[in-house]
């Protein structure tokens, strides 16, 4: 499991200065899966975030037979997937795969390169029910045989004779779209994916696959068409910047009355979250590749209503930091989490810090403004971890966030980047 980690935050300092926004977690994970589709050459991925999910994905890639190098100082991964030919290794073992959600994105490579896949576990944030039925049903519609070994809790996928088909997603699933795309690109014939996801990371993955030689049209329209090709080439790609990381840093600047320049952040990628933050009193100015974020420390934040929905709606991954930010706003904020039913464990943690949040199922009312105070709080998942760090920055006294692993899953060098902005945040590894 590795070393136990916690974050120690002493609040009261405004964030000021320049921060570098990391490469997107939710783009690099599918791209590592896609790199395994190339049977020749070496894939080079640049602007890779140094996060635990990437480390787990590389361990999984090595497990199934790829050669990988992570040049952390250069933020570059090199993947040679030419030797994926041992069918015995066509397994996603629980000890690695159950530690991150992106493990499910390895199934298309296993299907195409080894003919079958055994899934012994898929992880990710603990956010309530998170099904994978669209993925499995989609593989089956392309001709794969998907069976469940209920006793062992394993899923087996036999590729058999794959053939293009018409696929429909009940909701525009992010990884569902990416996974079905990756399954379709090497499947003979035409595949159509209806009600496909529109997230910028999905478009970045389409660009990457296109560079590899895949024939994909309609990305960003909700109706994607794929013409299967015989093989894909290993190529070089620079990963887009992480809009959730950017949103978290913007909200942290807002919480502390700060003034920051976020290098690599793209305001357009924030979708509705941009407008919500502006309504609260946050000022944005995009200058080329730098996003400037300012919140006047002499004003109080205004309360907000937010309902999470797929892109360009309010991103569920920004809902947790928004809840923390809303505790500082003058009045009642209303938040409806419409994607996950288990994301409000955060409310109890913020209430330990003095917040007044009432939860009713997937709806919450935040009564602000509160002067938060430091406390020992739990990071139930990646974004609730970031949210309690945000609350700690605005609180009096010291906040101790544990476990730190969920934060390390998705935010690269978090304490270092916050310290560079003037915050007092320490990442501690316990013996
Ligand atoms: C690695 C990655 O990219 N993770 C992101 C991805 O997760 P992920 O791709 O897992 O999220 P989805 O878009 O698939 O899930 C959205 C909703 O659809 C449901 N669903 C999904 C698939 C399925 O087969 N059946 C089903 O019912 C889920 O339970 C959930 O309620 O998008 C989420 C929503 O923007 C983000 O919070 C995650 O950060
Ligand atoms: C829910 C998240 O990630 P994952 O899908 O990898 O669990 C997240 O990034 O907030």
From TrEMBL:
Q: Which reaction does this chain catalyze?
A: phosphoenolpyruvate + UDP-N-acetyl-alpha-D-glucosamine = UDP-N-acetyl-3-O-(1-carboxyvinyl)-alpha-D-glucosamine + phosphate
GO biological process terms, semicolon-separated = cell division; cell wall organization; peptidoglycan biosynthetic process; regulation of cell shape; UDP-N-acetylgalactosamine biosynthetic process
- Residues where UDP-N-acetyl-alpha-D-glucosamine binds: 101, 317, 339
Q: What class of enzyme is it?
A: transferase
Residues given in the record as phosphoenolpyruvate binding sites: 25-26
- Keyword Cell wall biogenesis/degradation belongs to the record: yes
User: GO terms for CC?
Assistant: cytoplasm
E.C. no: 2.5.1.7
HAMAP family xrefs: MurA
Q: Which family does it belong to?
A: Belongs to the EPSP synthase family. MurA subfamily.
What is the protein's given name?
A: UDP-N-acetylglucosamine 1-carboxyvinyltransferase
Q: Which gene encodes it?
A: murAA
């Amino acid at each position: 499991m590795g070393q136990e980690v916690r974050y120690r935050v002493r609040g009261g300092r405004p964030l000021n200065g320049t921060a570098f926004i990391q490469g997107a977690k939710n783009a690099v994970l599918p791209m590592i899966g896609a790199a395994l589709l190339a049977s020749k050459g070496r894939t080079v991925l640049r602007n890779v975030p140094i996060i635990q999910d990437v480390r787990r994905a590389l361990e999984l890639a090595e497990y199934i037979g790829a050669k990988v190098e992570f040049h952390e100082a250069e933020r570059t991964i090199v993947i040679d997937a030419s030797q994926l030919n041992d069918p015995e290794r066509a397994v996603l073992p629980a000890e690695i795969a159950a530690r991150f959600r992106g493990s499910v994105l390895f199934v298309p490579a296993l299907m195409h390169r080894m003919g079958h896949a055994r899934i012994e576990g898929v992880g990710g944030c603990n956010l309530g029910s998170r099904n994978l039925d669209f993925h499995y049903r989609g593989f089956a519609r392309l001709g794969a045989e998907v069976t469940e070994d209920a006793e062992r809790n394993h899923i087996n996928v036999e590729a058999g004779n794959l053939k293009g088909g018409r696929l429909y997603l009940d909701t525009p699933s992010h990884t569902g779209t990416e996974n079905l795309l990756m399954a379709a690109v090497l499947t003979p014939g035409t595949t159509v994916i209806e009600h496909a996801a529109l997230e910028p990371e999905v478009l970045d993955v389409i660009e990457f696959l296109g560079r590899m030689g895949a024939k994909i049209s309609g990305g960003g329209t909700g109706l994607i068409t794929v013409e299967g090709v015989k093989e894909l080439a290993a190529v070089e790609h620079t990963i887009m910047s992480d809009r959730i990381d950017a949103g978290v840093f913007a909200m942290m600047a807002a919480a502390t009355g700060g003034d920051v320049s976020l290098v690599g952040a793209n305001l357009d990628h924030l979708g509705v979250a941009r407008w919500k933050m502006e309504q609260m009193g946050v000022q944005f100015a995009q200058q080329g590749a730098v996003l400037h974020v300012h919140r006047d420390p002499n004003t109080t934040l205004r309360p907000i209503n937010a309902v999470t929905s797929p892109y360009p709606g309010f991103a569920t991954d920004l809902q947790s930091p928004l809840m923390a930010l809303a505790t500082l706003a003058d009045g009642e904020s209303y938040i409806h989490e419409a994607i996950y039913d288990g994301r409000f464990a955060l409310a109890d943690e913020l209430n330990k810090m003095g917040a007044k949040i009432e939860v009713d199922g997937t709806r919450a009312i935040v009564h602000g403004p509160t002067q938060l105070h430091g406390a020992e709080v739990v990071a139930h998942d990646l974004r609730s971890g970031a949210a309690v760090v945000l609350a700690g920055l605005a609180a009096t006294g010291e906040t101790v966030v544990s476990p730190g692993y969920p934060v390390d899953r998705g935010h690269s060098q978090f304490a270092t980047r916050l310290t560079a902005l003037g915050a007092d945040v320490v990442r501690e590894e316990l013996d």
